[in-house]
Amino acid sequence: MSKLQLIATAPMGLEAVVARELNELGYETTTENGRVLFSGDIIDICRCNLWLRTSDRVLIKMGQFPAKTFDELFEGVKALPWQDWIPEHGEFPVEGRSHKSQLTSVPAAQGIVKKAVVEKMKQYYRTDWFPENGPRYVIEVTLLNDIALITLDTTGPALHKRGYRKLVTEAPIKETMAAALLKLSRWNGSRPLYDPCCGSGTFLIEAAMMAWNIAPGLRRSFPSEHWPAIPPEAWQTAREEAFDAVRDDSPLQLTGSDIDPKAIEIAQAAAKSAGLSGEITFSVLPASKARPEGEYGCIITNPPYGERLSDDKEVEKLTRQFGQMMLHLPTWSFFAISPAKQFEHYFGRKADKRRKLYNGRIECQYYQYLGPLPPRAPKKETDSQ
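RE: above sequence
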């Protein structure tokens, strides 16, 4: 099989972060709105599902073509090599979306795509009936500006579902978003990390996994593991590579607190499920009493707002507490994602950097207050001969 055209989907505003992550994994990328395109082999489907921390899904790009009419959509889909992927007993539901296209009816477009795939498979398998009781292949048709993009989803439940979080607090941040915000900060595993509104502990667990090079998909399964077109050996090789890459011998300085005792229970359970319960310190504590320890650390947090903290006065009070806290931490950096328009005013100074992001459907800013970087360790002098 020739090189596959693959797509890593990205939340709006984080395409560059996903692209950088793919580059670090060794792939050349092209960035578009909401997705990053790259090419790879069968095993790269496995590797990317296991390793991508900030993407939502890994898709196979089956085809892309103009589709102003249903006839064009039908013929374009029918021409694609579905028999290379979907077996005779495969289940193949179709999902869809349309924006700025003449084919505005998504249900009708989904029906046309389904019909076209069936017709192609009828020709190949020489049968008129497909039981659809085998492995699952989710096909998606995306219509944008009268161009149809046809993809096959290899991921199943989105990649933020790592498998370690069985319970959640109210309005938790997604694991993929937490990983992206960590990557946008200047934190690394040698620096202390503190979250004064840690909720279910997502920032801290993701940070530990990053510091120890733990592939985020190791604790979950994917529907494409059951696809005949992907040999079991490919998944086995990718998982063995991921297990061998773990580096769990470096000390971590990860601390989280929250005013809600139930949230701390959930965070501790999630850390235990991730195999990290001994590496993260959690405590029940209001943000006003948080006292981060160490030098050159980072505070990264998703403070309560909206449904989580409906009183604007409470939002103002909490943000002022953050500003006061940082006055006593001259070597620390502070990062917060918030929709509060007056965040900088309440914090007491303008952020060094801001980035517009969407936390779910809520438009937010990622406020970044940059402290000094840790001093570099002096180079060891070698004895001259």
